[in-house]
Every structure is written in C-alpha cells, then in structure tokens.
Amino acid sequence: MPLTAQQLDRSAGSVIGMAVGDALGSQYEFGPQHPDDFVPQFGVGYFGHDVGEWTDDTSMAMPILDALARGDSLGDPAVLGTIAGEWDAWAQTSRDVGAQTRAVLGAMRGVFTEEAARAASESHHRSTGRSGGNGSLMRTGPVALGYLADGREHALADAAGRIAQLTHWEQDNVDAVVIWTLMIRHAVRTGQLDLRVFRGEFGDATPRFARWAAIVDEAATRHPRDYQEQNGWVVRALQAALAAVAGATDFRDAMYRAIRGGGDTDTVAAIAGSLAGALFGASGIPDDWRLRIHGWPGYTADDLERRAVAAVGAANG
User: Fold this and answer.
1) Cis preceding linkage at 297, omega within 30
2) Residues 6 or more apart whose Cβ sits within 8 Å of residue 131
3) pLDDT by residue (tens digit) across 109-148?
4) Residues 6 or more apart in contact with residue 183 via CB below 8 angstroms
5) End-to-end CA distance of the chain
6) Distance CA 189, CA 309 (A)
7) Crossing angle between the packed helical segments 77-91 and 99-107, to the nearest 10 degrees
8) Which InterPro entries does the record associate with it (predicted)?
9) Mean of the per-residue pLDDT values for the chain?
10) H or E segment and range at residue 302
11) Which residues are annotated as a binding site?
12) Residue 158: enclosing H or E segment and its boundaries?
C-alpha cells in the first residue's frame, strides 16, 4: 500500500502526538479538573520527569515502535517476548512504572517470552480479581502503523489484544486497545474519526458491540472532566481521551481538553494524542511542542518521526 504524503504525516503525528500529550500532561497528573480558560504548560512531572520529558506511557510504546521500524512482525511470539524483555529493562531505572505492570514483569522472573508474559498476566488477574488499568491502552498507539494496508483490520486487532494481555489480562483491555488502534488506523488512512470502525471486529448485532457503541457514543458528546473519576480504568481512560479528541478543533485543543479533565492527565493526554495526531498529522502539532519533547531511550520528536516512517514503510511498503 503506497502511502501519500498526508498519510505519512498522520502516521508520524500518531506517535509524536502521544509523546507530546504525555509530556504536557505529566505535571498535572493526579490533579484537579481545570476550567476552559486554563492553559496547560510543560513543566516538571509529578514523578520528577524533566520539562518536556515523556513518562511511562510513551516509554512503553517505544519497543513496539522500534520493532515495527525494524520490520518485525507483532504477530511473532518471539517479537512480543523481546518487547516484554525491553519493558523489564526500562522498568529497572524508570521513575514511574505502573503497579500492575511491575508486578507482572517481576513474576516473569527473567523469562521473557509471550507465553511467560501471558501466564504471569493471567495469574495476576486471577489473584487480584481485576486487571483493567489503563496501562494497556496508553502504549498501543504505534501498533496501528503496522497494519495500514487494505484488509489488515483483523491482524491489527489480534496484535493489539495480544500486546495488551502481556500485562493486562482483562477483556476490557483487549476491547479498548482494539477500538483505539482501529480508530488510529482509520484516521491515518483517511483523516477522519469513525466511531463505528470496530463494528467488523465486534460483530454488528452482538452484546459486545452494543456495549462499546454506547460507551463510545456517550464519550463523543462529553468533556474529559466527566470522566475524571476512575480514569485510571481503561474504559474511563478511553472515554476521556475520545471526549478530548471528538470535541476538539485541532491538536492543541485536544490536548488542552484532555488535561483540563484532571486525574490521570499524562495517560489520558497520551492516549488522546495518538488519535489526535493521526487526525491532524505531525504538521498539525505546534513546532515549539515538538522541539520540547524527549524521553527514554534518548529519543526526540525527530527520532519518533523517523521510526514512524520506517515502521509504515516496513509493514506496508
């Protein structure tokens, strides 16, 4: 599938947008809601991240992006095992690692395979009774770049769900990442937001589709502030991010809306940024924001753009 210049711009935007939202929202994490005249600024993060530095949300996406840029298949169990191992290496020095992610990585005891990760993830879910944190959704934006070609929706859904379950077993995590990556894919391909893009994967007349259609429809008419409570839960995080994007006039507006919602602002803004970037493109992200961002493993916005272009070229060329 040859990509147009606009599609390449939107591909890069989906990755840069994630990182920008993450870094911009970092200092407001766990904070209150803000009024519509509040203008978020880059600052030192809640966990001590530098000004413009992205947090765990984007860092966990980097091994996925790098794998795609190398031409690796996210359907390969060995590749997923390598990604889990890279997460573990990152977690050793990271300022912030989600409690559930850290617990699952620790339970793998140095055996980094997809099978070991899934076993640890399922065991954690069964022992705690839940595993619906938003850590699965925050990192999966780049997955869409590997499946832009015609007819690749089902393969995308499979890869996104498997990556989610490396640490987050609950079905809500699988459904949320499938919906989000399909929305990103469609936005990169068309420049449009499609609230029903997951119909083909969920089945038009199924309770699963009906439930998520209602969740998505509600969010598209609301503000992220309506989802501040429990936006660490993957369903509320998806709704907050979608509310930020669906009601926005441009990329900047989407990020402001996401952060004004309060709560888990870096994660909601990172999730929203991946979709907003896919809609408005890297060219729609303010230049001064692009210049500020940086993070593990020593990347800048230029590095993200190069890897995004390499990823779509390797997977869709």
Assistant:
1) yes
2) 100, 121, 124, 125, 168, 169, 170, 173
3) 999 999 999 999 999 999 999 899 999 999 999 999 999 9
4) 193, 194, 197, 198, 275, 278
5) 6
6) 14
7) 120
8) ADP-ribosylglycohydrolase, Ribosyl_crysJ1, Ribosyl_crysJ1_sf
9) 97
10) helix 301-316
11) 55-57, 264, 266-267
12) helix 153-164
Q: Which helix (H) or strand (E) holds 58?
A: helix 56-59
DSSP assigned state of 132: -
User: Residues within the annotated binding site for Mg(2+)?
Assistant: 55-57, 264, 266-267
Asked whether the predicted pLDDT for residue 1 surpasses 80, the reply is: no
CATH class of domain segment(s) 5-316: mainly alpha
Residue with tokens 């919602």: 261
**Res 317 pLDDT > 80:** no
Q: Are 229 and 170 spatial neighbours (Cβ–Cβ below 8 Å)?
A: no
pLDDT score, position 148: 97
DSSP summary character for residue 3 = P
pTM here is 0.97
* Residue 232 neighbours by CB distance under 10 Å: 17
pLDDT at 316: 74
Report the pLDDT averaged over residues 253-268: 98
